[in-house]
Amino acid sequence: MADAVQTPQPTFPPRIFSGIQPSGGLTLGNYLGALKRFVEKQEEGIETIYCMVDMHAITVWQDPEKLRQQTREGAAAFIAAGIDPARSILFNQSQVTAHVELGWIFNCIARMGWMSRMTQFKDKAGKNSENVSLGLFAYPSLMAADILAYKATHVPVGDDQKQHLELCRDIAIKFNNDYKVDFFPVVEPVIEGAATRVMSLRDGTKKMSKSDPSDQSRINLTDDADTISKKIRKAKTDPEPLPDNLDGLKDRPEARNLVNIYAALAGHTPEQVIRDYAGAQFGTFKPALADLAVAKLEPITLEMNRLMQDPAEIDRILGAGADRAEAIARPIVDQVYDIVGMIRSRRR
Ligand code: AQP
Predict the structure, then answer these.
(1) Maximum alpha-carbon separation in the chain
(2) How do residues 102-142 score in pLDDT, each as one tens digit?
(3) Which of 16, 17, 18, 21 to mutate to test the pocket of ligand 1 (most atoms within 8 A of CB)?
(4) Which pLDDT tens digit goes with each residue over 200-228?
(5) In CATH, which of 3.30.565.10, 1.10.240.10, 1.10.390.10, 1.20.1250.20 is domain 215-307?
(6) Whole-model pTM?
(7) Which of 220, 250, 245, 249 is nearest to 232 (CA)?
(8) 198 and which of 29, 92, 154, 277 could share a cystine (Cβ 3.0–4.6 Å)?
(9) Is CATH 3.40.50.620 correct for 15-196+310-340?
């Protein structure tokens, strides 16, 4: 981007931040592209901060009661998938006001031209761009604030967030240049694994998304075993058997998607899956995938259901996480106010 000039990067201690919107129930895409990776990062022993980004969710209309429910359900999914709130910081964004404070400052750093190029905005706004919220347009600037309020250095995400992370890097670089400081790290996206972009079960060219109007297009983390099996068996495919190498999947997006999902769930590479199922018909492959998906997802769903019996405990965990998050973000954002020249004379 034109205004962003690379400066030498000082060393920042490794810290992971990532978030998920409570804009619906979480999907297999969120699980494989994000949640599963979040747990792996926690297990690597790096400091991990994870957030239900409720302020992002309201960039499109959310029913207030449903938003609360989805935020708790998302937090339950994190814990059920293996996030330990004692080891990782787990909270909801709106409880730590440093995010929106820094978000405003970044609105004054980011350029209109940068934001206009965001493909997610174009996809979500569609032909309706005059009528969507200003928040939806500014979304990537708040996302940069989520990350940089903690001076996070690494951000595990699905492939769809790559462009937003490039913008986060540009904001950090421009802030550092404008104010002649080495204050913010230039973050590294962590986009790894066999399923960085899980596609819709109805259309292999479209991302699986929690807000897709068709429930058949996705596997929800709340789906029971029977529903998961049915959705996989009904997933759109082509009439050909599986090929014996990955090149054979090049123009077969639905088949490629199911192979990637299998690989990510099994912890294999797509090459291994193709080797094991070379020549198999979908009549054989789909039931195997359905059994694998049920075996991996059912324990998470059952644990989520158990945790959701006690919403007060989930709220307590989010509150305690927010206290820990605030303790990191507050001094960083206070330093930002100093750097940009705000008077801070209130006694606290
Ligand atoms: N289909 C996907 N494949 C791989 N990763 C995915 N992620 C989302 N969908 C897929 C990753 O999940 C994390 C959280 O995403 P988000 O909830 O903040 O928003 P999103 O990317 O816009 O996801 P959705 O499901 O499509 O939400 P809606 O429908 O509300 O817009 C991110 O790391 C994302 O990459």
Answers:
(1) 72
(2) 999 999 999 999 999 999 999 999 888 899 999 999 999 99
(3) 21
(4) 999 999 999 998 999 999 999 999 999 99
(5) 1.10.240.10
(6) 0.94
(7) 220
(8) 29
(9) yes
